[in-house]
Amino acid sequence: MKTIHFDLWHGTNWFLAKEIVSTNKWICKGDHDKYLGKGIYFSENSKFWACTWSKNARRYKRPTAINCKADVLENQVFDFSRDRDFRLFRILKNKLIKEEKSGKNACSLRHGAIVDFICAVSKKKQFNLSDEIKVVKAYNRRAKKEYDPEYFSIEIEICVKDPAIIQIVKVEECN
User: Fold this and answer.
1) Same domain membership, residue 71 and residue 46
2) Separation CA 92–CA 85 (nearest Å)
3) Residue 28: how many other CB atoms lie within 10 Å
4) Which of 38, 54, 91, 112 could staple 63 via S-S, CB 3.0–4.6 A?
5) Are residues 11 and 71 in the same domain?
């Protein structure tokens, strides 16, 4: 089985970064309302996007980016760019919609809830998933500056479901 190596950047503030480094404890934030469900969110290969989030979304006074690495087996990654994974997402979403309409299931049908459901069934090796999903990968088109249609980039967003796979490399303040 092929191992996938991730170069990850997590946006935060200086004080939280120091705490994460000293304790090596990550808080899995988020819920079904989050795009990729509950987990620790990173930008892949991009300090820029981690800092952009720290500066704009959170408006931290000392925006900081933590650079990390994570190695996982290919089957432990749910990647929305892979046909197999995207098809599974659509199949399960449609299944949950039918169950909700029939009254069999009252769960939230938000994007993150479906991703979390897929991660939960992967632990039971259902739906042809051979390994527990530890990383979810998605691609987002983002404007470099708010409301700037002239310039855009693709952010690769990573949600780590298992904090034990994260290895801290360095911490850098954002400029």
Assistant:
1) yes
2) 11
3) 15
4) 54
5) yes
What range does the domain containing 101 cover? 77-123
Angstrom distance (rounded) from CA 9 to CA 43: 5
Domain annotation covers residue 128: no
pTM value is: 0.85
pLDDT means per 10 residues, the chain with 175 residues, are 95 94 83 79 92 83 96 95 92 82 64 87 85 91 52 78 96 93
CB 40 within 8 A of CB 10: yes
Q: How far is CA 150 from CA 47, 57, 88, 168, 173, in A?
A: 22, 21, 34, 35, 28
Q: Could you tell me the strand order of the sheet in which 40-44 lies?
A: 77-79, 135-143, 152-160, 40-44, 3-13, 63-73, 167-173
Q: Hunting for tokens 């952010």 — which residue is that?
A: 155
Radius of gyration of the chain (CA): 17
- Rounded to whole angstroms, the Cα distance separating 153 from 35 reads 18
d(CA 82, CA 63): 33
* 135 close to 74: Cβ distance less than 8 angstroms: no
